[in-house]
What does this fold into?
Amino acid sequence: MSIFITGTGTDIGKTYVTALLVKKLREAGVDTAYFKAAVSGNERDEKGGLIPGDAQFVKTVSGITQSLDTMCPYVYERAYSPHLASRIEGNPVAMDTVISQYRQLCKEYETVVCEGSGGIVCPIRYDETVIMLEDIIKALELPTLIVADAGLGTINNTVLTVEYMRSHGLEVRGIILNNYRKGDVMQEDNRFMCEKLTGLPVIACVGYNDSDLDISAETLIGICSQGGNL
It folds into this structure.
């Protein structure tokens, strides 16, 4: 029982929403792990080691006890796409390592919530070996949820993301709108239009500083089921 979280772009709150998803599952009694194949834009600790910031945030918000070193196999300092960060810093992503670490988490935990890098069209490695984000989703055999900003432009961004994913054989189970303001006529229409034009449900709307998802744990567990246990 696992799910992959991607987004309509970078900096739309994908990690924040992922943390709330993990928190919801943990509070429902589901033994949940977090996984992100490659994370960029990280700071160093006092010993010079890179801290996977997204993983640290998810761990803090969700309350899971999973160790940081099992969450992200590839950690880069520069806030670039992983393919460029690894070209400069070394240690490019290897698919075998990603699959192996994910499989190990599947053995140890009931559910693994995986987070992508950037939007769906994200080069993870681009040298003699080409790995796109969609290749990782396919290799892990995971269904997906899309995080989108609730504001102006989200209809276009969400529909294009869904159509791209479908055309590349990826299963999308729903949409989560972030930065949502209930009662805002434009954002409520955005929600309506995203559902109508994609045929997908908006399963949750996340407001500023929300500490919980407005979705039942049972519904979320159902969405995460039947996927990803290699």
Summary: The longest strand covers residues 172-178.
